[in-house]
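User: I've been going back and forth on whether these two constructs are worth ordering. Before I decide, could you fold them both?

Assistant: Sure. I'll take them in the order you sent them. The first construct and its structure tokens:
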Amino acid sequence: MEISVTRDSFPLARVFTISRGSRTEAHVLTVRVSDGKHCGWGECVPYARYAESPETVTQQINTLPENVTRKTLQALLPPGAARNAVDCALWDLEAKQAGHRVWQLAGLAPPRCEITAYTLSLDTPDAMRAQATENAHRPLLKIKLGTPDDMPRLEAVRNGAPKSTIIVDANEGWSAETYAELAPHLQRLGVALVEQPLPAGKDDALLGLQRPVPICADESCHDRTSLPELRGKYDMVNIKLDKTGGLTEALALRQDAEDQGFSIMVGCMVGSSLAMAPAVLVAQGAAVTDLDGPLLLAKDRQSALRFDERGVHPPTPALWG
């Protein structure tokens, strides 16, 4: 087989800001795996938070042997962006070779639409109120917080979108004390979930903490080996394929997490429809789906995922799987 890697950029519809910084483009790597007759593809987003760059991820992919399979891949590369793109490309290739859909190969039920969150970029309260008003028709809004001035922003969003369910992503920017102080206000404003309030690796303070608003592990949860450290701290885990290292591990992580009593959120980095397509399979029936990456783009892939009032639709064979 031939494995190739290319860099692609997708302009964003508007500047996207979180507590760690801003961006105007989504920079991704596209991996293609060809057997000479069929070609499968996948996408990943190298993430500096996990010490990844386009160069290091490309280098990892270029170390793979030509006879790599999904099974051998799991041991050849660690969880992360590189393994994700290759794993998803191999799934796509297998589906094309077999003339079946990926969900059939994986033994899954036919996928359906899933309501997805729509993320509001971090900004001034007035600007976030305007964003919320513009998107008040969406049933689920996600707010990027994690700053000393979070409450005015949250109040502004609730004023702009009084009927939407709100989830909050603190991006490791709070302390346990901050969560405890804000929790009554989060309840008052109808916040359904808080993602990763404390820094990964420094979240032992969550042990025994009253959690009136459920807490979801994001940066603290990568693959199945993460789960033992999450017990007693988190109510939910956020499964992202760029963290798990692909669809293969994501499906296994979901099963183990559910078996251990965690609720499931399926999220994404800012990427194209190609990156979201396999995640739609993982998101089936999840408590929270956050696969809005394509909605943040000014331009997407051809045969892009379809989004409407019913949510994100499963990918067509022309896109992936």
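The second construct, handled the same way:
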Amino acid sequence: MTLLNQLLPWQQLQWEHLCSYIAQQRIPQALLITGNKGLGKQQLAHQFAVALLCAAPQANGTACGRCSSCLLVNAETHPDFIRVQPEEPGKGIGIGQIRSLISRLTLKPQFETQRIVIVNPADKMNNAAANAFLKCLEEPTERTSIILITEKPAKLSATITSRCQKLAVVKPDKEVAVNWLAEIMQCDAAANKDLRSNICLAQGAPLLALEYANDQILSLRNECLDAWMAIAQQLKSPVIIAENWHKLPASPLMFWMTSWVIDLIRCFYPVQAADLYNPDLYAQLQKLSGRLELKALYKLYDLLLSDRQRLDTQINKQLLFEEILIQWYELNRSK
């Protein structure tokens, strides 16, 4: 069974909420599922969709997996299960895709249950597509439910969000995340120190932590930290490091740098390792903070926040990293 076909343990409350819609026969015409990356929004939406399509749901509300509808879903050939997503990685959802959806929705569902449309990620609709999509919400068709998924709800227009029922997926308790990840990876949670570090690195999102573990992202983070520290010690050039870093995934790298600076600021005050974004780096960051200036760290933090907002633009990533790393170099040189 794939993760997509599982009801994840930290989603029980949200699942009960969705089941109440079915029990009360109040299926939302539009449902907006939000939450950070790696919390299983797509899995939850999929579970709800197949339960609505299933001819004989189980006692806990999940699909039976055996009826003709479930078999069609598993074969990805169900005519009443429509997915709208970017046609290529990194691309948006265009108006042509939405027009095609509107055309399909003019026809009646082929089965007697619901017709389900999943738009993921909904924030990838460009302006023209979003405006056209409003027609789906303003003129709902027979037995059709639209599920929108996003980790950036602020990027959706107010006219879209106001027409949706809303469901937020929140991160689980840390021990729940650790135990789940240990079970999936078939390892001992107590013995595997990297497991907890991956959870922290993923900001408590279990699926993202699993992705990090599989891709050895923790090792990459540590390599970047070594370079960051080498710049602080005046051992490496920020320009050379920026040239190397622009080839790496920018978003996680920007988050790592931001989290290091936040933790350095926190280390100016009485703080425990558990209170940091990077508890595994507590001793290292505590020592470094002792020779830095708080005001200068806040200035660097402001720059990082500003630059994180510019990542989705056409900005030159190498120049962006140069600006950050040179300021980090100068901050340490003054001491």
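Notes on the second construct follow. DSSP finds 15 helices and five strands in the chain. The longest strand covers residues 144-150.
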